[in-house]
């Protein structure tokens, strides 16, 4: 059972995800995807280390570890706001700012994402590894591509390439032991890994 209001704790790792509020898309163009990632960089990168992500036409996934409380309190402007509440507020700002721009661009009104956004606490290494593979396989399962590296709106290529990235590549590759094993695992079929939306 997923607790949609699970408290987001500093220093802990979570799978954060949400989908469109209805059957519509949340991304139509490259500009939409890029704008969403820029908003993520602005609101979420300062409060979390990002291990992987995947943006799909009607939903998104992020695997993150929130920064330690002593780091977060430096960013909190209101004295009466605790670190967990601050994390949730940053996500509200992030998704709200994207929704506002998306609605203006597409002449629509109302919420774009299901509220509250969904989250799962990641507590062990096996689940961490399986989740990374699951997230990167989303576009394959949706038949948008045949291999993880063919989908440009995920972190897969940022992990396997030498270029600079905000993704914590070393932590991810260490979880798989090395790049070779990371690639090997991602070549395997997803099999029956539990859907995050079940």
Order of helices and strands: EHEEHHEHHHH
Please bin the fraction of helical residues: 40-55%
Q: Which stretches are poorly predicted, pLDDT < 50 over at least 5 residues?
A: 192-198
Termini separation: 9 Å
Number of helices: 7
Which strand order does the major sheet show? Answer: 2-3-1-4
Please tell me the overall pLDDT: 91
CATH names the topology as Alpha-Beta Plaits
The Cα radius of gyration reads: 17 Å
What is the molecular shape? globular
So what's the CATH class?
Answer: Alpha Beta
Largest sheet: 4 strands, antiparallel
Level-2 CATH architecture = 2-Layer Sandwich
Number of domains: 1
CATH superfamily: Transposase IS200-like
Number of strands: 4
The proportion of residues in beta strands is 5-15%
Name the structural class.
alpha+beta
